[in-house]
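Case study 2.
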Amino acid sequence: MTWPYVLFAFAAGVALPVQFGINAQLAAWLHSPIRAAFVSFLAGAIILGVAAALVFKPLPSWNRLGHAPWWVWLGGAFGAFYVAGSIFAAPKLGAAALISVIVAGQALSSLAVDQFGWVGFEQKPITAGRIAGMLLVGAGVALVRIF
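Prediction:
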């Protein structure tokens, strides 16, 4: 029953190199990676606003929002950093190298998140197999950068 989630995640991954290229071109037109990230987020916010309106669920109360843990509000900040960083790096690294370095960073961070059970994830220890996987990711990054 996880196939729809895997396919959705795969489709999101397919979209990333295209998004990076579009945003890098936008940065060139606007002469600013930060302004390009802002425009990208603005367009995304409008689309998400329409999608949220179509969900037909009531909005949470201010009281409920006020009781959320402080760190849940950092998701947008991390998203902004991710988009701005990818816009900044894309023209210099190229699509394949950018994605491979991002995947390496995501994989390394994921090991720590799983190891300590941070931000709501189930705790899963770092194992020899996971370390071997990280070494293979690192080798993949090196091969993409070299060739």
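Residues 1-93 form one domain.
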